[in-house]
Amino acid sequence: MPHRNPERSDLNAFFDPRSIAVIGSLKEGFFGGYVVIKSLLNAGFKGEIFPVNPSYKEIWGLKVYPSIKDVPQKIDLVLIITGARSVPGILRECIEKGVKAAIVVSDGFAERDEEGKRLQVEIVLIARQGNLRIIGPNTAGVANPSKGVIPNPYEMGYKKVKEGAIAICAQTGMINPQAFPYGDLGYGVSKICDFGNKADVDECDIMEYLENDPATKAIALYLESIKDGQRFLKVSKKVTSKKPVLILKSGRTEQGAHISASHTGSLAQDDRIFDAACRQSGVIRLNTFRELFELPKIFAYQPLPKGNRLGIITFTGAVGVLAIDEGAKYGLSVPLLSPGTRKKLDAIFPGLGKRIVDIGPPMAVVNDYMSIYSEILNTVTVDPCIDSILNVIWTGPSGEFMEEYLKIYRGLQGNRKPIASWVYGPRVHYVNEMTCQLEDMGFPVFPDIEMAIKALGKASQYAKTKGGNR
User: Fold this and answer.
1) Which CATH architecture has domain 302-469?
2) Using CB atoms within 10 A of its CB, is residue 378 exposed (0-12), middle (13-18) or buried (19+)?
3) Local structure of residue 63 (DSSP, 8 states)
4) DSSP character for 85?
5) 198, 239, 246, 192: which is closest to 219 by C-alpha?
6) Which of 43, 116, 267, 432 has the fewest CB atoms inside 10 Å of its own CB, making it the most exposed?
């Protein structure tokens, strides 16, 4: 593979282009250039869009050019959606045009066969000689919702991706808008990037770019391989000193590593070495695909805990015991509350001031338990013996308490201790609505107790590691 300068990590042309050219099929359907242009227009992209295809004159009200050379204006970013064999020639034309960034959506490269591997080496050589960066090939592309840059080649089914503070990047299009319901989430994303085959832009490039991206507070990655182990260790250690990096890596088993090679042309690596690299660099390793979307929320929207002491507010003692057991896996302890807090809680209801603050008993005898709920939550939140809080919310059969919960949480905005919530109740509709509204306010809600506790545990571990690296 031709030499690449490892310091070239300015990827701004991919995420904040002023002009985008779309080269390839413009036929109406669920995939292709037609969908890319539609997605950009729906997302409110303010820059110029140049469709390129010799068989069309106009599409979506835009003039279509027969080739990239015929576009009169400067082009920042090109999306290529053509047959693999035509890509080298198109890249040469892009370089002549002065283009500095290309997303090669086309497949049929290293993930396909030997001919594809040869083509992939060829396009990388062309790009590096012309100072052109490539994301892909075999990719679903990128997204930057704050700029309306959603050049999605697959039909999404919705128009907007909500802006947020989490960057999600992966060697799969399963993180892109056509595969994940970003339009319905209570939280948003800052950037999305599918590396595809990682022929050029890789995980180290994206980490370095996001390190200095003010919109990104947490970085989540799904990887099938690491291109340069030494560079990964150096870059990840530097980035994690500023922002949390959470990584889900497949290929843990011999069979999984072999299959990943046929997916994106990845090389198998010893998983034990990668695990050691994560521990050494401060990377938070994830275990499941769902964690890729869930655990970053605690880092993006809540302050880091000052220590490992967990406070628990629940409607049932069983959940509290489960939380204690789960927290022990991540070094969380559940201490006695301070004497002042215990006294206040016992004054609200006898026996309430325990390690697990169980609202179940007073709820059974107090007609309007929400009248005391706010005081209970606020009392535990300010306890000096507590660093983070698990709060359990019951929506009720008709969602009758939701407005009160939201009012109470609004009063907690700006709180200096992280709060992870779990919402449950007899109606899925109210659980989902409560979840979205809380997350819209910046309070992460997790799908189960275990995930909520793991989020707080990982936040505590990261805070300790980050503090030790200062």
Assistant:
1) 3-Layer(aba) Sandwich (3.40)
2) middle
3) E
4) G
5) 246
6) 267
Give the DSSP letter string of 310-353.
Answer: EEEEES-HHHHHHHHHHHHTTT-B-PPPPHHHHHHHHHHSTT--
* Residues 409 and 441 sit within 8 Å (Cβ to Cβ): yes
SS3 211: helix
Residues 329-376 have pLDDT tens digits of 999 999 999 999 999 999 999 999 999 999 988 888 877 778 889 999
Tokens of residue 367, six digits: 């007609």
Of the options 3.40.50.1100, 3.40.50.2300, 3.20.20.370, 3.40.50.261, the CATH number for the domain spanning 12-298: 3.40.50.261
- Mapping DSSP to helix (H, G, I), strand (E, B) and coil, where does residue 243 land? coil
* H or E segment and range at residue 134: strand 133-135
Report the Cα 456 to chain-centroid distance in Å. 17
Of the candidates 189, 193, 196, which has an alpha carbon nearest to the alpha carbon of residue 208? 193
Q: 290 vs 106, 139, 180, 217, 319, CA distance in Å?
A: 28, 21, 11, 19, 22
Contact 401, 430 (CB under 8 A): no
Question: What is the DSSP secondary structure assignment for residue 175, as one 8-state letter?
Answer: G
Residue 67 half-sphere exposure toward CB, CA atoms < 13 A: 12
390 beta partners = 312, 420
Neighbours of 48 (CB within 10 A): 16
Domain layout of the chain by residue ranges: 12-298, 302-469
CA dist 8 to 46, 97, 292, Å? 27, 21, 27
Residues 199-213: tens digit of each pLDDT: 999 999 999 999 999
Instruction: For the chain, give the percent of residues with pLDDT over 90.
Output: 82
Same fold, 12-298 and 302-469: yes
- Within 13 Å of residue 301, how many CA atoms lie on the same side as its CB? 28
Whether residue 137 has a cis bond before it, omega within 30° of 0 = yes
Centre a 10 Å sphere on the Cβ of residue 17 and count the other Cβ atoms it contains. Answer: 23
Strands 419-424, 388-394: pairing kind: parallel
Q: Are 468 and 338 in contact (CB under 8 A)?
A: no
Q: Cβ atoms within 10 A of the Cβ of 98, count?
A: 12
Mean pLDDT of 377-400: 94
How far is Cα of residue 63 from the mean position of the Cα atoms in its chain?
A: 35
Pairing of strands 58-59, 142-143: unpaired
H helices present in 98-228, as ranges:
114-129, 203-211
Dihedral sign, Cα of residue 122, residue 124, residue 127, residue 131: negative
**Apex 131 CA angle, 127 and 76, nearest 5:** 95
Residue with tokens 């227009």: 41
